[in-house]
Amino acid sequence: MQTTATDPCVMRVFNGPMAGCEFVLAQGPTRVLVGPLQTQDPGTGPGIGEQVLCVPFEQDNCSFEVVAPDPDTHSVRLRPLQPASATWQHWPLQQQRQIGGLQLAFRLSSQEWALQQPVVASIARKKLSVSLRLASVVLALGLLVASVGVWSLPDRTASAQQRSVSALVSAQAQVLQGRDQLVYVLVDSQREAAWNRQVLMRQQLGSVVVAVMAQEQQRLEQQLLAVEPGLPIRLLDLNDPQRPLLVLAGNTLEPGLKERLEQQLLRDAPYAGHLAFRVQDDRVSVEQALAGLRQIGVPFQRSDQAGGIALRIEGNLQDSQLEATRRFIRRFEQQWGSRFVHFSIVLQDDPLKGLSHQAGEQGYIKTSPASWQFQSSNHR
């Protein structure tokens, strides 16, 4: 097949974090930097008309330069960047080979993948003895049985796509493989979600879902309530997304209900493999909330409501009290949830803040055009 200017060359990676990823090469030379991300350095920079690709890989010294095939050719030209004296090599299309520790193959964008084994490797295989062939068959069957067992587990080995996504997203993100062949990226904030979506979009990686943890928690809770209206959910803990924890109010939980809830959650969260349950007494959570606020020493008001209680924290709090209160509320909601005990903080501003002040023995604060408030016992 002849190449044209509209038929670019495609490079595919077969191992490492980017296994399964494909890159479209521009016409002319392309510099491919291979190695750990922190060590990749384009050096003197690309030349005129030269593009640069970065491929994360655990080994170094695999970087190379490649030139897409010219018309009437069936191979690309490739040259390692190290050593500098390395010569150009011809790499046939549709043939998987290795440079350093990185396994690659090239094809035209108009072609489908139809990989061919090198001739030398084919001849070598024909020279294998019967005993070695039998041993290979036995070993292959053993590996097949083991792989079927591993892939049948919910926490199976990460797929090539999952590894590729993990190498690109932020370190704080949780990357999970779903049973629906999608990869899920769970993050803590909208800002982090937007950043990771941009990274994945630039790399043209599809079949990836980016979700904020709090929104994912609310979505799953609503799905469970749709199946079981009135379910006394107190918390759906996604700290371990593959094994979520559902906290319910009450004393006991029927086995049939547990089974229905787990089946529903596993349908709505393909990345989860098991749903754990915990039943708690609402009275205990209320006692913990009251004890915590009293220990901090902040004023609050309690208001009993249908289906929960409201604790209103108010007053002119010091900065240390305010920070301690917010930390306590975060810890409490992580353990007990926020569906039964509701906290609110109402700060009272200083009524004299911003008013003019006169210093001196009889210093005063002017509260209105005709009123003055003296700090002493005399008022005018």
TrEMBL record:
Keyword Glycosyltransferase attributed: no
Superkingdom in the source lineage: Bacteria
Classification via Pfam families: PrgH (PF09480)
Transmembrane spans: 134-153
Signal peptide: none
This protein's UniProt keywords: Membrane, Transmembrane, Transmembrane helix
CC per GO annotation: membrane
InterPro entries noted in UniProt: T3SS_PrgH/EprH, T3SS_PrgH/EprH-like
Protein name, UniProt field: Protein PrgH
Gene: prgH
